[in-house]
Amino acid sequence: MHKPCNGDFERAAQMVYQNYIFDFGSTVADLTNGYRIAYTTAFQHFDMPFDVSKEKEYYGMPLDVLFSKYHRGCTCMYRDFVTMLMSTYDRNVIAGTTIYADAGRCIAMLHGIGCRLGIVSDSYEQHIHQILGEFGLGKMFSSVVGAERMALRRPHPYCLDLCLREMGSERTNTLVVSSNPKDIEMGRQAGVDTAFIDRGGAIGPDCGPTYYLETLDRLPFI
What we know:
This protein has 222 residues and is of the alpha/beta class. 41% of the residues lie in helices and 14% in strands.
């Protein structure tokens, strides 16, 4: 499905974007297996019950907030928890990750026609670069802004502007591409168009993107 959500089909047909800002996890890469291995290992070691139905909630939560739900006032234990989680993920980041086929095709096409590409993500930059390099996509992105450089977290557009500065671009002719509704809100606050990727069709277009898509193969306008 390739559907402009604002009803302005004439504008959509004429729009050409020069800059594409992607989310990483669930948009470009499927990180589920690597995260699951790391979190279940750390949870078990620190006697924290892991509820599979809540795993997406765990992955999106700041680690200090997550840990404090089970252990309060344990600074040393928290450091050990983070160390274990990160080291386990480091060991499994490549083996546990795949690039979505539609993402690989889309990124290669956009890069090939000269578009500027960036990533804004809650993942750490080291892991993003490692995964992109493993799948031959590393040189296609002019900027990667990860969790460690988010002075203000999404949906605040701070990280979007940081990414654009590193790309040598401005908000004009920019499209934010994400499977996360908070990125759609970030784009709205920045005044840029957005494409919401809903591969399973489970979320729907209610978050208000400019375009609602079920595959990156339908991203405008490649």
